Amino acid sequence: MCFMAYCPYVPPHEFNLDFPHLMLRYRVAEQKAGKIPFGQRHLTKTDRNGKLAAMAPGLCNWASDRGNGMTRPLLEKTAEVHRDAALPKFHGRTFALRDKNEPPQVNREAPGFGRKAVLYATCFVNYNNPDIGMAARAVLAHNGVETRVVYPQCCGMPQLEQGDIAKVAESARQISEELLRHVDEGFDVIALVPSCALMLKFEWPLILPHEVNVKRLSQATFDMSEYVVDIAKKEGLAEGLKPLPGGVALHLACHARAQNMGPKAAEMLRLIPEADLQVVERCSGHGGSWGIMKDNFEAALKVGRTAARQAGTSGKAFVASECPLAGEHILQGIERLKADNKVEVTQAEHPIELLARAYGLV
């Protein structure tokens, strides 16, 4: 779970325990011993799963729906995924495909005109939530940024969770080679979700410390919110932002906090006029794929109860998280709240979607 919220032995404690990498060493040992369960191994094959699901997204989403009393018990039995855990939806028109068919118009009058950025689509945005990518692309185009959408493959975060370091290293070498072609043309690199930004910036260089390409890419990579704040500070944002009525309860994702860049999503949303923001800094309880497993789901909701309560009783019109999986998990926690004043929200949005909404772009 989120060591920054709960573990007492991390800095500034004198033990200075690197808890995430301690757990990673344990997972590596489990992986080498063949102890990773069948279901968990196949859940990490995000590119395979996404490509197959894109062929029949309606059928896949029907089968994975929480209300499906026929398929969800079967999924629980075969893959050990709890029948009540919300699962990401799949899309036939991936983000990469939508980008190809719907090119944006770059605002040449924006203060940031002249910037160029590659959007590393990430497996989640590409297959499960293209709207995040489209919102990011729209905000950047409005702010004068030329974009390219690139998705060679998954960054390997799911494999890192399972201790498959060799697979992560392979992904790092292949993706860094592809993305650096664009960096050499003057493009920055933006990862659309914080887990993937953390991989490109920090985890890959730890796994491959002597790989020049990996180091170069880490230095050229931005988190999505970080990049917008950078534009705001250096050139200024394009005009057109309007207030968001009702305010926002914003969950700061652990993988964003681990990037040591400050609360950039909060900084970004405070650029909206009359910003009404409540920041939630507690663990969502999701823990990657951990929180959807049969043996963990109820514990995950319990761990995330404080975050769900803070967001659910905030009185805000919007609930947002930089991590889409954490956002969905918080919504499930809100569903279970016994509170008369809990908010009525059906979707947790990415902060960049809210910025696009404030611009009137979506």
Name the features:
Rossmann fold; 4-stranded parallel β-sheet; single chain; 362 residues; alpha/beta; globular
Topology summary:
Blueprint: H1 3-6, H2 19-32, H3 38-43, H4 46-55, H5 57-64, H6 71-79, H7 95-101, E1 116-120, H8 123-128, H9 130-142, E2 146-150, H10 157-161, H11 165-183, E3 188-191, H12 194-207, H13 212-220, E4 221-223, H14 224-234, E5 248-251, H15 254-257, H16 264-269, E6 277-280, H17 297-303, H18 305-312, E7 318-321, H19 324-335, E8 348-349, H20 351-359
Parallel strand pairs: 1-2, 1-3, 3-4, 5-6, 5-7, 7-8
Helix pairs in contact: 7-9, 9-20, 11-13, 12-13, 18-19
Description of the structure:
The protein has 362 residues and is an alpha/beta fold. It has a domain of 112 residues: Rossmann fold. 50% of the residues lie in helices and 9% in strands. The chain contains 20 helices and 8 strands. A 4-stranded parallel β-sheet has the order 2-1-3-4, with helices on both faces. A 4-stranded parallel β-sheet has the order 6-5-7-8. Helix 19 links the parallel strand 7 and strand 8. Helix 12 packs antiparallel against helix 13. The longest helix is centred in the middle third of the chain and has 19 residues. The model has no long low-confidence stretch (mean pLDDT 94).
- Strand order in the largest sheet: 2-1-3-4
User: What would you call the structural class?
Assistant: alpha/beta
SSE run: HHHHHHHEHHEHHEHHEHEHHEHHEHEH
| Low-confidence spans | none
In DSSP terms (H or I, runs of 4 or more residues), the helix count works out at 20
- Note the gap between the termini: 34 Å
- Examine the secondary-structure arrangement and name the CATH architecture of the domain at 248-359: 3-Layer(aba) Sandwich
Mean pLDDT: 94
Overall, the morphology is globular
State the assembly state of the protein chains: single chain
- Alpha-carbon Rg, integer: 20 Å
CATH topology name of the domain at 248-359: Rossmann fold
Q: What is the helix fraction of residues, given as a range?
A: 40-55%
CATH class group of the domain at 248-359: Alpha Beta
Report the β-strand fraction as a percent range.
5-15%
Total E-strand runs: 8
Largest sheet: number of strands, sense, barrel closure: 4 strands, parallel
